[in-house]
């Protein structure tokens, strides 16, 4: 379908990105509905009720409705009332949301926190630009987190490089400022690749050293599904078995902050996770943001 209006082919895309297909919302579908569906699925899987959720954090990069927050729509969609907020750390948003949730759990301000990552990056790209539009897919993933027996270790960071990857939306004109033009997503692919690989490796290795855990003792390294070449490069430098790097980028493309929770959900529902497994999650995004998490699975 893409080759009918782009100078591209299935083999060209697959060779450079590892993506075979992606899911794109069409007429009659909405990001809000997708987010609520993911939230309800996570709540059911966690074995709690909506009224037992004390806080909702939603990771979202771009949406049609700038106000109210997407999280406040999710509150109504699952039929409860609780504090909520949106965070935007681009594709690293899931890790940043987990960091916030960890603080809320540690302080005792919440017992069950719903994290929803809902993204439609396909609305941010120029569909005449084959270097960006073929990369992305829409999606949502959610988790419920509660205080467990094992502490998690989280590392987040931001290096200010907005010019490497950005999207500019248009605001309403005022009597004091003229109308602005929307700029589709712009990306310097080589710079993104270098930063993605270096930041992920640094974050992962720092976490393992901080907890004195051997890299071989990690069951899975769940990486942001942005490009198979990035995943392969990190795997190459880590020098551990390839089976420790599960991937689903071929099916979904880059779903921004939703990519790791979608991958985590698939592993969980397939029975691939056991209590006591060490997991590492690592993501990077526009900004540049980066984040990594080391946690012992306890479900």
How is the biggest beta sheet arranged?
Answer: 4 strands, mixed
What is the CA-atom radius of gyration, in angstroms?
19 Å
Q: Can you write the helix and strand succession as a string? A: HHEHEHEHEEEEHEHHHEE
Shape: globular
Low-confidence stretches: none
First-to-last CA distance? 41 Å
Strand content: 15-25%
Strand order across the largest sheet: 2-1-3-4
Given the structure, what is the number of helices?
9
Structural class: alpha/beta
How many beta-strand segments? 10
Q: What is the helical fraction, as a range of percent?
A: 25-40%
**Can you give the mean pLDDT?**
94
Walkthrough of the structure:
- α2 crosses α3 and α6 (189-211) runs parallel beside α7.
- The protein contains 9 helices and 10 strands.
- The protein is globular and about 50 Å long.
- It has 299 residues and is α/β, with parallel strands linked by helices.
- The strands form 3 sheets. Strands 2-1-3-4 form a 4-stranded mixed sheet, sandwiched between helices. The chain has a 4-stranded mixed sheet with strand order 5-10-9-8, with helices on both faces. The chain has a two-stranded antiparallel ribbon with strand order 6-7.
């Amino acid at each position: 379908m893409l080759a009918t209006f782009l100078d591209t082919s299935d083999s060209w895309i697959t060779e450079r990105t590892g993506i075979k297909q992606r899911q794109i919302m069409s007429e009659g579908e909405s990001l809000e509905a997708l987010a609520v569906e993911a939230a309800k699925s996570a709540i059911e899987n966690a074995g709690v009720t909506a009224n037992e959720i004390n806080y909702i954090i939603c990771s979202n990069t771009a949406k049609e409705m700038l106000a109210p927050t997407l999280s406040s729509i999710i509150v109504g969609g699952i039929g409860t009332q609780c504090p909520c907020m949106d965070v935007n750390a681009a594709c690293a948003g899931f890790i940043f949301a987990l960091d916030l949730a960890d603080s809320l759990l540690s302080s005792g301000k919440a017992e069950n926190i719903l994290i929803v990552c809902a993204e439609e990056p396909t609305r941010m790209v120029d569909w005449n630009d084959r270097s960006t539009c073929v990369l992305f897919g829409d999606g949502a993933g959610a988790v419920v987190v509660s205080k467990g027996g094992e502490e998690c270790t989280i590392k987040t960071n931001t290096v200010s490089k907005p010019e490497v990857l950005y999207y500019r939306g248009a605001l309403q004109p005022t009597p004091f400022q003229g109308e602005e033009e929307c700029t589709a997503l712009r990306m310097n692919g080589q710079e993104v690749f270098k930063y993605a690989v270096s930041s992920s490796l640094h974050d992962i290795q720092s976490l393992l050293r901080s907890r004195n855990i051997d890299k071989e003792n990690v069951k899975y390294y769940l990486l942001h599904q942005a490009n198979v070449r990035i995943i392969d490069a990190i795997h190459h430098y880590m020098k551990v078995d390839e089976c420790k790097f599960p991937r689903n980028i071929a099916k979904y493309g880059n779903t921004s902050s939703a990519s790791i929770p979608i991958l985590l959900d698939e592993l969980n529902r397939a029975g691939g996770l056991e209590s006591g497994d060490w997991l590492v999650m690592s993501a990077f995004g526009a900004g540049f943001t980066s984040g990594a998490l080391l946690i012992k699975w306890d479900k």
